[in-house]
Amino acid sequence: MKLWLLDADVIIDLLSLNSLDSLVKNHKVFAASTVIEEVKFFKRNHEKVSIDFRKHYVANGLLNELSASIDEIAGILDQIPDNARDTIDAGELESLAILIKEESLIFCSCDSAVIRILPILNISERGISVEKLLKSSGLQSSDLKERHTEHYFQNNLAIGKKNKIYSFDPKKEK
Question: Which of 19, 53, 88, 130 has a CA that sits 20 to 30 A from residue 173's CA?
Fold first, then answer.
């Protein structure tokens, strides 16, 4: 699987769950440049652990880095409703721009705001929850939080689909 880790939260959570190393062995894993820079630490066993994520994962070829242009990011902003723009950070915007152009990537996120944007961008079917990703990779974790579950992912997709219907703007349709 070509796996896209959409935001820093999911990377930090996978590090905390001690699952990222197994995932990079089993899949070709990608992340956006901005997201890679955001990962500075994670928690394991209630302790804060510092990490030079770029050095450990990117420089060693364990994770692949991609970048989006300013024009590609602006294109994503044009598609996101005004009331949702403040909920998406720079790393997530870059990730969404890359995800649009790299159609072979399956993405994973546990951020409700990002998951709710996916139907608006017509990429819902390419998403996977942390729980489903771990199960499909033969990994188990008893430390999953609500935001990691398939139920959480699907619930936020459903909210995003409703939002897409209610935010339809015929002036933006071409």
Answer: 88
53-74 pLDDT, tens digit per residue, is 999 999 999 999 999 999 999 9
The rounded Cα 32 to chain-centroid distance in angstroms is 10
Q: How many CA atoms, within 13 angstroms, populate the side-chain half-sphere of residue 73?
A: 16
pLDDT tens-digit map of 114-159? 999 999 999 999 999 999 999 999 998 888 999 999 999 999 999 9
- What radius of gyration, in Å, describes the C-alpha atoms of the chain? 16
Question: Are the C-beta atoms of 32 and 8 separated by less than 8 Å?
Answer: no
What is this structure's pTM?
Answer: 0.90
| Relative orientation angle of helices 70-79 and 90-101, to the nearest 10 degrees | 90
- Map out the domains of the chain with their CATH numbers: 2-166 (3.40.50.1010)
Question: Which amino acid type is present at position 20?
Answer: L
pLDDT band at 170 (very low <50, low <70, confident <90, very high): very low
Q: Report residue 12 as tokens.
A: 């930090």
CB 124 within 8 A of CB 161: yes
Task: Tell me how far apart the terminal alpha carbons of the chain are, to the nearest angstrom.
Answer: 34
CA nearest neighbour of 29 among 42, 15, 40, 43? 15
